[in-house]
Structure formats: C-alpha cells, structure tokens
C-alpha cells in the first residue's frame, strides 16, 4: 500500500471514530463527545475555526448602511458522513438574534440542498446576556423531543448553538428558558447548551461565497471553510447538464484537526452566459474506497 493510501486509511478510521453518521432524515448515529446540553465549556481549538471567513468581508455581524446585519445561520444537509450542518450567511433586518433564530427554525434557507431539523414553532425572544445567550420559548412545544431521535435532537440543538454564537461572535452558552425565565429543556436536553467540536457536527467543506443564486461576470472569488486531505479543496463549475466546464483547487490554511478557511479565484470569462453550478469538495485520496468527497454547491448565473 503506498503512502497516500496508508494516510487515507488512517483518515477514514479517524473519521469513523469522530463523525456523526446519518440515520434517517434528521438523525445521526454516534454520541457527541461534547453533547448539546453539556455544561462544560468548549476548548478554543474546537471552536475557533468557525469564526467568519477572513476572505469573506460580509461575515462581520455589524449593521451596514442600510440597517441590515449579516448573520451566519446553520442548516442541515446530507454528507457522506450523514447529516451535518452547513453555514449560510444572510442579511437580516431588526434584531439579529431574533432574525437568525427565525430563519433557522423555519428552515428558510437560500440553498435548496439545506433544511432545518426543527419542527414548526418560534421563540418568544432571543437575547445575549453577560453569561449566556438566552432563548425564551413561546410555549412547551420544543421542551420534549417529539418525533426527533436522540441524535437528531442534539444536532438540532447544535443548529441553534452555532447560529446564535455566530451572531454574538462569542462562545457563550445558550440557555433556553420558559416564559417565567426558568431554565427549560430543549428537545429533552437539560442545562446550558454548548458547541460540539466542528468536525463532529459541521460539513467538512462549505461555501460561503458565492451565495446561492449569485450573478457573476468574468471572475469571482470563491471562499469557505474545509478540512480536506493535505488542505486541498478541489472545485468545479458545471453546466446545466452536469458537465465540468471549469475546474481548479484551493489550498486551505490547514487540515485534519479542524475546519480552515480557503479561497480561490474562479475564471468564468470563457463561458457562455447562463446558469451554472459551482461545487467545492473535499479531496478523496482513497479513490472511492472511503466515504467519498463531501460537497457544497451553489447555483450561479454567468453574465
């Protein structure tokens, strides 16, 4: 076995030990080492990679001149490791915590490949306090697990934790309370909710830009985060029939231990105007013997 395949085998074994494999539409099969509902604080290494991408100037969380705020919202999507979370940056009006939570709970994603694990409902309020982000339940509908599996409930809780911590730009725990301000369970999970390690709940590659439905001309900068073999993030532009018409790769700032930012210039000046799909993926050194590459795709229009 050559060195590349030996490394691939080690990575596959490591991934099997760490990942939450999907068990149905809203499910994952393995236990989280740092499950939602834990009162322990995440380490810096387990969360620092999920700060806004340095290559993405919109990932600031500060209101722009029009009064809108850019917030990260985490939605669920399919990956070779099962259901994982993908980040989508959205511009919202009004209170960013409330707006981001509403996008999450309603599943109002721009990307049709994304969805929410949450059943219908809404929070009465969401606000950052000194020691926690406090989400107040509108009723008791989300206190019990309902139709969610145990692992599906944990991943749904991670949607909320990652989203609200991203808005706050601080790793505060998320505290769910009832209308009287008394701590309440979320989907049966008791206690303050903290972030699980990114490699356990997030997709191994995601695209922050271009956003779904973007219009581009000549060239554009694609960017996102990934944990991919030897920091290589292959990408493709595919036409409406799925044919690869442009391809290349980005080099992320690191790999294996967490998600790292990546960015690449994509030249589409030679393409006819029309609708295309930009796809970023993880490198697959196993040649199809392992899980296969994780992908994130965005529909774009070339002028």
Automatic annotation (TrEMBL):
<feature type="region of interest" description="Disordered">
    <location>
        <begin position="23"/>
        <end position="72"/>
    </location>
</feature>
<feature type="domain" description="Bacterial spore germination immunoglobulin-like">
    <location>
        <begin position="205"/>
        <end position="289"/>
    </location>
</feature>
<protein>
    <submittedName>
        <fullName>GerMN domain-containing protein</fullName>
    </submittedName>
</protein>
<feature type="region of interest" description="Disordered">
    <location>
        <begin position="284"/>
        <end position="303"/>
    </location>
</feature>
<dbReference type="Pfam" id="PF10648">
    <property type="entry name" value="Gmad2"/>
</dbReference>
<feature type="compositionally biased region" description="Low complexity">
    <location>
        <begin position="32"/>
        <end position="47"/>
    </location>
</feature>
<dbReference type="InterPro" id="IPR019606">
    <property type="entry name" value="GerMN"/>
</dbReference>
<feature type="domain" description="GerMN">
    <location>
        <begin position="72"/>
        <end position="167"/>
    </location>
</feature>
<dbReference type="Pfam" id="PF10646">
    <property type="entry name" value="Germane"/>
</dbReference>
<dbReference type="InterPro" id="IPR018911">
    <property type="entry name" value="Gmad2_Ig-like_dom"/>
</dbReference>
């Amino acid at each position: 076995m050559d060195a590349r395949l030996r490394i691939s085998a080690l990575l596959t074994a490591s991934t099997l030990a760490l990942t939450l494999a999907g068990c149905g539409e809203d499910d994952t099969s393995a236990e989280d080492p740092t499950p939602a509902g834990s009162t322990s604080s995440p380490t810096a290494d387990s969360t620092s990679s999920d700060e806004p991408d340095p290559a993405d100037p919109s990932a600031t969380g500060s209101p722009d001149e029009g009064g809108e705020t850019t917030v990260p919202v985490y939605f669920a999507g399919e990956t070779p490791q099962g259901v994982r979370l993908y980040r989508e940056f959205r511009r919202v009006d009004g209170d960013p915590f409330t707006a981001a939570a509403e996008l999450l709970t309603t599943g109002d994603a721009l990307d049709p490949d994304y969805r929410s694990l949450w059943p219908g409902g809404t929070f009465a309020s969401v606000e950052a306090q000194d020691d926690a982000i406090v989400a107040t339940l509108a009723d008791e509908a989300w206190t019990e697990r309902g139709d969610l599996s145990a692992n599906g409930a944990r991943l749904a809780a991670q949607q909320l934790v990652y989203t609200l911590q991203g808005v706050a730009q601080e790793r505060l725990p998320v505290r769910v309370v009832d209308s009287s301000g008394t701590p309440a369970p979320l989907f049966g999970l008791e206690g303050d909710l903290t972030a699980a390690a990114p490699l356990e709940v997030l997709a191994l590659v995601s695209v922050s830009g271009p956003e779904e439905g973007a219009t581009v001309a000549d060239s554009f900068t694609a960017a996102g985060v990934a944990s991919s073999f030897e920091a290589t993030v292959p990408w493709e532009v595919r036409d409406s029939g799925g044919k690869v018409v442009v391809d290349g790769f980005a080099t992320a700032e690191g790999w294996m231990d967490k998600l790292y930012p990546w960015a690449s210039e994509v030249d589409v000046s030679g393409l006819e105007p029309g609708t295309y799909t930009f796809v970023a993926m993880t490198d697959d050194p196993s040649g199809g013997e392992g899980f296969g590459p994780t992908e994130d795709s965005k529909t774009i229009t070339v002028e």
